[in-house]
Design goal:
By secondary structure, this protein is an alpha+beta fold. It has one domain (about 5-165). The protein has helices at about 5-75, 80-95, 140-145, and strands spanning about 105-110, 115-120, 130-135, 155, 160-165.
């Protein structure tokens, strides 16, 4: 005998028989995709961090070589040998294309209780960068560099934006 109630139970049972395995499979696939994306992100981040460290070290060695040369041969430069070195670095970076779409090269020194930027390659302007208090939460990467630390970190730059810096 035909009963609508038995047909309805059979339809629900058939729905669950298909839906639950499909839902389980989709959940597992989503979890695997998420894990794979996370691993790829972490790998790319570490590669970028290592590239930036090598670039920063290369730039530092280049600036040291320029400074050593200027110590020997540029004593008559107006402002002295330090001014000669900074002038050459600024000249080189005026035509520098940068470090990709978001990369930036910065150069600074401590004057009193402030970090004075000599060169900001990407933001603001090249000639009149704004100083930052040495105790500020801003310019964390530069503050670490000026204290003699090397390597990389994620911290706030001079604009208050979290960056990966070397």
């Amino acid at each position: 005998m035909f009963s609508p109630r038995n047909t309805q139970k059979a339809a629900i049972t058939g729905f669950h028989r298909i839906f639950i395995p499909v839902l389980t499979l989709a959940s597992v696939a989503l979890a695997i995709a998420g894990a794979a994306i996370w691993v790829l992100y972490e790998t790319a981040f570490e590669e970028k961090r290592n590239d930036m460290i090598h670039t920063a070290q290369s730039q530092a060695r280049l600036m040291e070589a320029i400074a050593n040369f200027d110590q020997l041969y540029s004593s008559n430069y107006p402002g002295g040998t330090e001014a000669a070195t900074i002038s050459q670095i600024k000249d080189a970076h005026e035509a520098y294309k940068g470090l990709g779409e978001t990369g930036e090269f910065t150069l600074a020194r401590v004057e009193g209780d402030r970090i004075v930027f000599i060169l900001l390659h990407r933001h603001l302007d090249l000639d009149q960068p704004k100083p930052v208090d040495i105790d500020s939460k801003l310019a964390e990467p530069m503050r670490h560099a000026l204290h003699g630390h090397s390597g990389s970190l994620v911290g706030l730059d001079y604009r208050g934006v979290a960056v990966l810096a070397a």
